Amino acid sequence: MKELLSPVGNMEALKTAVYAGADAVYLGGKKFGARAFADNFNEEEMKEAIFFCHLYGVKIYVTVNIMVYESELSDVLDYLKFLYENHVDAVIMADLGLMEVTHQKFPNLEIHASTQAHTHNIAQISFLKKLGVKRVVLARELSLQEIEKFPNDLELEVFIHGALCISYSGQCLFSSFLLNRSGNRGECAQICRLPFRLLKNGKPVLEKESYLLSTKDLNTTYRVSELLQSKISSFKIEGRMKSPAYVGYITKMYRRLIDDSSLKVTKQEEQNTAVLFSRGFTEGALFQAVGKDFIHSKTSNHQGIYLGDIEGITFQKIKIRLKIDLNQEDGIRFVNEDKGMIVNFLYNEKGLLISHAKAGETVFVSNKLGIQKKGIVMKTLDHSLELEMQNMSASKIFIDMQAKVNLDGFRLSLSDGICQVTMWEQIVYPAKQCPVSEDVIRKQLCKLGNTPFQVRNFELELDSNLYVNIKDVNDIRRKAVEAFTAKRVYRPAVQFGNIVEISRKFDKKMALFATVRNEEQLQVLLHYPVDGIYVEDVSLYQKYANYPVILRTNRVNHHVNILNVPEILAGESGTFSKFKGVKYTDYYFNVANHFTADLLVKNGASRVTLSPELSFDNITDLLQHYSEGNPFELILYGKIEVMVLNHCLVNPNGKSKECRMCRTKDHYALQDRNGAIYPLIMDNSHLTHIFYHRPLNLFSDFFRYWDLGIRKFRFEFLDESSDEVEKIVNQFLVLYNDAVKRM
Question: pLDDT per residue over 168-186, tens digit each?
Fold first, then answer.
């Protein structure tokens, strides 16, 4: 049975999703979730949500899927304990170390690995299984063909509808570096929805800016039958920040298509889906969409659906010929001037106010925006559809009711086919005058009022000449309903375990490492006391194998191969877990607390690179757990990779092996509206790597980090010349020598 999983940002959306047919919902609390700007649920609301969902037989999953700082560990464990004791069905997590500790401390709390965990290969799935994970939310860059090759070790969850990220989730630092709003902390500012220019050798490829990073919205309504035949366990809708109407309608539509795979999406459903929210639709990487089928380069806003064309404009009114119906209070947008409004006043051709107009009619709307250009008009909000979803009636839970009434007593049983309760009361007496009738008992027992239950089958055995007080009948019904409700929401008592600590002893030697992108940079470093040089180019690595070079693996490896090298800098958990030699972890692991660091060390990491998102205070908190040295490597200087895309910006329409458009000596970059230039590297796997426009530089804080106990430092070189590399290394050596003198 495939699960339909719906997003909810508040209680109204939750109830709408349940009534619309969701099998499960996912939501966040006020902290620790990757949608910090959704309404989210406080603890009392969370209890109410859990009770409501379990009453209706719907599972509830709670997001705890941010990068967790050291100072937050106590609070996050308290929060997980609260969720565990209140019987959420699962928590959705991204932090690897927190997953392991959660499984140790709360052994019966089901863990789902968030899409923020960046799971895209089989080796990662095996690693997550060892941590106690039961389900993995797969990276949205995977195709259905790739997913079908995955083992059945864990349940597989996949997004089927809603907004997409252009970057691999959990691997985007753009918002964090540019605006200090971390996507890994649920604060993404959606930099990908802004316009950019593509530069080739410093010159624009196209004259105008375009939305090169803005994806269309995922929509798989035409592929549901294929999804139903796949290994996917759970179909996930995106939208915790969307309206209850959106959540309800999209859930209801997919419920219909999942329940009967022979059905097709209707024309009306197409229109309603687009008007609720759409940046244009794509079937995504799931069905291998590329180029214009994936990116909407003209705009990143909600598009809606085509309403009609402007036929005339005056200072006061705009004349529109309708292609679809329009209602008063609908939302519209004038494409040529990119302005939108609510239709508060709608007029017919006679100038009379109307509340509704049909396709083919000509109408007038107020020109309150000062529109001057003719062109296309889009419908961006359907008021009647919003009202319809707001007024969705509460679902009823159908139950079977059996009553047996005789002088031995009044026995009442309620059942839904799984849960059953039976109540017995001695409230039956011989009738002196008017015996109770079958109709009276039926009427009173089936009077379930504002409860969520409705009697489906009713059976009554009633002996003759008996008297039962109506008040007593109502009382036994009330007690039975209360007991039945408790039975439906009941969960077994929780059990607790202990966190397994590790011994933390590490060498305190100073060491210097550097990433290079070309041979010239590498040759410069060979003249300096550099302990390790990270190289991504395999041929360059092989050429200098007798020198202190270390192979750096990509953070995206759809197929993990066993490497025949002595040591690696691992970019993702699959390669890390599978490699048997000496290994170190890159900053892509988002290490921000000692739980994650300890996990990596236990699994063979000799060095752990700290996340470049950490502040000095964050690192200070973390190092309190490491009194005898520490395993950490700190990036002191470098142009940080802020995005990795499964999408080529140079040739977006193809991924063929024959494509060589980015294999030349040309240099590509993105330029934002403020003139900042972000270098690009397109690799042999057709991945696009975007680097920040200026280097991270912590030289001014070097002595502060040294005094904390950091002894492993790294340079991330990208496009620096040989002279620039020399200058940076010499600058570090001056600082290091001063630090040694101070010891």
Answer: 999 999 999 999 999 999 9
